[in-house]
């Protein structure tokens, strides 16, 4: 048994959550459930980054207090647990959790040998909260960079260049997929500059954690937020070792736009503080709508735009709760896991979600279970025969190993493909054996065929458990025991048959991003 710490990044709460963050939550949830089923001891933690200047500006734009905006939007992120069927163990809020501020202060002091103060002038992007060289533009945001001149605290990142390169090159810090590993090695090889880790109180509008011993400065939001991985473990009280240095694996899951912070800045900060670095950094790409990164800022409102979904709107791509209300948690989780590739951005449309749900869940998996349970009731009074054939043993035997191998490679599409292959082969087996014909002919083989199919449906319930926990429970409920429950459709179809109900359509339209709105990374977190 291994001890495994799994984390999402923590998002700004300048607006409500979008589907890009749901992707990351679902990915980590699958990993957590998978490792728990293997018998591993797992801690899955997530939360929100409340202490950002971006949050301050969002509150100013709304004309409300920063605390009110942060509390309201953070509650929306916490509310995702139910609709998305998440199994996280801890949710930390950086402005409200009593563990966080003292933990950040302790971490700052632990790195004091690498902290110094100097004047700095540079171009700053509020969207991703970082400085850029004068010849570099922010790759994520269309807004112009702002020139900032002030005295800040700096961290000696340059000191850790060779050690960081060696950790990643050797695989002691494993970065997946390989494209992202190569990207970060090239970044380190080009040289590392010290970076600013504080902001003036005036520029931060007094929001954030003051620098210990220097109340005129506020700790840089990325330093503050990256620290959540330790502060949620009660680092301030020195109680983090069980789940940090004591863990066999410390796995961070994050979007490609924040790779530099997690694979360079964060490990260097940990080394400075005398802590071990993460073992795994698993990176996903972006979700897009009409080829543009999903915009959290668009959730504050704005006109809809045409899509190819049943209602002609794609606002549900941004609002995961609205999407679940319209199509169900199984459809949303399945699309995120089956459609999103290991490398490369993917465009969301409701029509694609429906196609995956109806084609694979309703017509494939759901149809299989319904046929099997119905035939056991029709031909054997609901009693499961004990006889079995070996016809499906090979595909079932391969599936568990294939799922584990794919998840170790951070490939959810391959993992779910291995599960769905069992359902496909089982449906082919039904068509080859024709149980209805065996029943009509009075063939003794019928019992073995039905017994084989029930065993396969039970196996599918187990295989699906990390990916679709709700559907897994429903399948198990229909297929467990010596006498099966009455058949009930598992996955109602969502084929478009006209406009969506007004309640759903209104919920979706209120969240649709304008194709001309400014965008943020599908996942921005860690600070």
TrEMBL record:
Q: Which UniProt keywords apply?
A: Aminoacyl-tRNA synthetase, ATP-binding, Ligase, Nucleotide-binding, Protein biosynthesis
| E.C. number | 6.1.1.10
**Which EC class is the enzyme in?**
ligase
Q: Which residues are listed as membrane-spanning? A: none
Record carries keyword Ligase: yes
- List the InterPro entries: Anticodon_Met, Met-tRNA_synth_2, Methionyl/Leucyl_tRNA_Synth, MetRS_core, Rossmann-like_a/b/a_fold, tRNAsynth_Ia_anticodon-bd
An annotated Gene Ontology molecular function: methionine-tRNA ligase activity
Where is the sequence biased in composition, kind Polar residues?
A: 507-517
On whether Protein biosynthesis is a keyword of this UniProt record, the answer is: yes
Q: Which CDD domains match?
A: Anticodon_Ia_Met, MetRS_core
Q: Which Pfam families does the annotation name?
A: Anticodon_3 (PF19303), tRNA-synt_1g (PF09334)
Boundaries of every Methionyl/Leucyl tRNA synthetase domain copy: 4-141, 149-372
Region feature Disordered, mapped onto this chain: 487-527
Residues of the Methionyl-tRNA synthetase anticodon-binding domain? 387-478
Q: To which protein family does this belong?
A: Belongs to the class-I aminoacyl-tRNA synthetase family.
Q: What is this protein called?
A: methionine--tRNA ligase
Specify the species. Streptosporangium amethystogenes subsp. fukuiense
Q: What is the lineage of its organism?
A: Bacteria, Bacillati, Actinomycetota, Actinomycetes, Streptosporangiales
């Amino acid at each position: 048994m291994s001890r495994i710490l799994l984390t999402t990044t923590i998002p700004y709460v300048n607006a409500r959550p979008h589907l890009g963050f749901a992707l990351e939550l679902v990915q980590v949830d699958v990993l957590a459930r998978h490792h728990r089923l293997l018998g591993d001891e797992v801690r899955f933690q997530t939360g929100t980054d409340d202490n950002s200047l971006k949050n301050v500006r969002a509150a100013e734009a709304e004309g409300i207090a920063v605390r009110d905006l942060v509390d309201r939007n953070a509650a929306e992120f916490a509310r995702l647990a139910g609709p998305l069927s998440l199994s996280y163990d801890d949710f930390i809020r950086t402005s409200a959790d009593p563990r966080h501020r003292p933990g950040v202060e302790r971490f700052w002091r632990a790195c004091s040998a690498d902290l110094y103060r100097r004047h700095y002038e540079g171009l700053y992007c509020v969207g991703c909260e970082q400085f850029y060289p004068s010849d570099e533009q922010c790759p994520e945001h269309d807004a112009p960079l702002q020139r900032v001149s002030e005295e800040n605290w700096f961290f000696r990142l340059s000191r850790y260049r060779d050690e960081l390169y060696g950790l990643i090159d050797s695989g002691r810090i494993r970065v997946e997929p390989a494209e992202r590993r190569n990207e970060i090695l090239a970044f380190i090889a080009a040289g590392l500059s010290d970076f600013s880790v504080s902001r003036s109180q005036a520029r931060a509008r007094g929001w954030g954690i003051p620098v210990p011993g220097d109340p005129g400065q506020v700790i840089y939001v990325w330093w503050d937020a990256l620290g959540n991985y330790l502060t949620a473990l009660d680092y301030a009280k020195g109680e983090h070792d069980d789940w940090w240095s004591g863990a066999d694996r410390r796995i961070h899951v994050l979007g490609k736009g924040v790779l530099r912070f997690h694979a360079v800045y964060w490990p260097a900060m940990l080394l400075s503080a005398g802590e071990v670095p993460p073992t795994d950094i698993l990176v996903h790409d972006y979700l897009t709508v009409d080829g543009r990164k999903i915009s959290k800022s668009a959730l504050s409102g704005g006109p809809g735009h045409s899509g190819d979904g049943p209602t002609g709107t794609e606002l549900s791509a941004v609002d995961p709760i609205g999407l679940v209300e319209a199509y169900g948690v199984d459809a949303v989780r399945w699309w995120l896991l089956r459609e999103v590739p290991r490398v490369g951005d993917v465009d969301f449309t409701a029509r694609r979600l429906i196609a995956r749900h109806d084609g694979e869940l309703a017509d494939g998996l759901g149809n299989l279970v319904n046929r099997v349970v119905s035939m056991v009731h029709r031909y054997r009074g609901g009693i499961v025969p004990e006889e079995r054939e070996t016809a499906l043993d090979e595909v079932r035997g391969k599936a568990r190993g294939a799922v584990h191998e794919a998840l170790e490679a951070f490939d959810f599409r391959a993992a779910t493909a291995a599960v769905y292959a069992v359902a496909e082969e089982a449906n082919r087996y039904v068509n080859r054996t024709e149980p209805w014909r065996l029943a009509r002919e009075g063939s003794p083989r019928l019992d073995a065929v039905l017994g084989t199919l029930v065993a396969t449906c039970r196996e599918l319930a187990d295989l699906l458990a990390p990916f679709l926990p709700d559907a897994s429970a429903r399948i198990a409920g229909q297929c467990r025991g010596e006498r099966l429950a009455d058949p009930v459709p598992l996955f109602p179809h969502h084929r478009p048959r006209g406009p969506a109900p007004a309640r759903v359509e209104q919920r979706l339209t209120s969240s649709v991003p304008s194709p001309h709105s400014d965008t943020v990374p599908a996942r921005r977190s860690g600070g």
